[in-house]
Predict the 3D structure of the following.
Amino acid sequence: MKRRIVDLYCGQGGTGTGFHRAGFEVVGVDKVPQRRYPFEFHQADALEFLAEHGHEFDAWVAGPPCRDHTKLAALHGLAGTGHLLPWTRKAFRDHPAKRPWVLENVPGADMRADYRLCGCMFGLPQLRRERWFETSWGAYELRPPCHHTGTAVTVTGHSGGSSKRDGDKRPTAGDWAKAMGVDWMTVAGLSQAIPPAYTEYIGKRLMAVLDNPIDAATQPLFEKLPMAPSTSAPFGAPPSWTRVVIERAGGQCECAGQCGQHKTAGRCPLRHGGRHKKRDVVLVLAPKKHGLPVHVAAGLPNAELAAWCHECLTKVEKLAAPPA
């Protein structure tokens, strides 16, 4: 029997299609009719639907309207929908069913960017469309920087036409559809959509979380993660994070002086979910041995990973960096 996921603020189905490809049965919810939505659809208020029917699903995903979180809001004014992002997060956390969830929005939104995805990561080399994803399981991942081949396509503004200032033609609606890997949406739908490749990727990781559920004692630690993008090098899938950080390390940084400190104490005293220098302490997975190429580090087993606090990891990475 397929696992079920509800797709809130579903639009024309970019998000839902990715989760469908990952193996989920998808049900979409939006306050306006979405005749092009390819799966079961309910016209309803997203948060009211979640409150009434959330327990009927194995997981929840939401992409609240993003306009008030974009740079364009300063030019064109607010749409009055910015509150939906924090309200949806609160609804997820407070729901008695306690399902794993995913929130999506644009760079710069008031959210923790567990995943930062762009088209160049998924065989969509021309698509320049970064989106952030926050998860209930506090996912972390190591990924290379964006690399686009040829002319990058940005799905914003109006399609088609030309720019007298820049002396070039703007991408057409067909260019947008090809770049995003969709063929059923209107221009308006494309401008708001998440490429299905992104949520197929997230969906497969969500399946792993459902197959390896986080126990009730561990879940509060994930909810203590700060609401800001991490600046350290994140690493490791959710099950690995739990096994190394919680089970082996006991929620305490495993640095034993490699950073140049803690030589007397023997081990860094910082613990996940605590406070240090007016900041939340967040432990991430990273290789015990630093300076490894990304493709080597990505394949390391748990035994060669360690739990690191931001302060120790930053210092160790600086020490391991080759001289300029």
Notes: Confidence is low (pLDDT under 50) at residues 159-167, 224-237. Residues 244 and 250 are 8 Å apart (CA to CA).
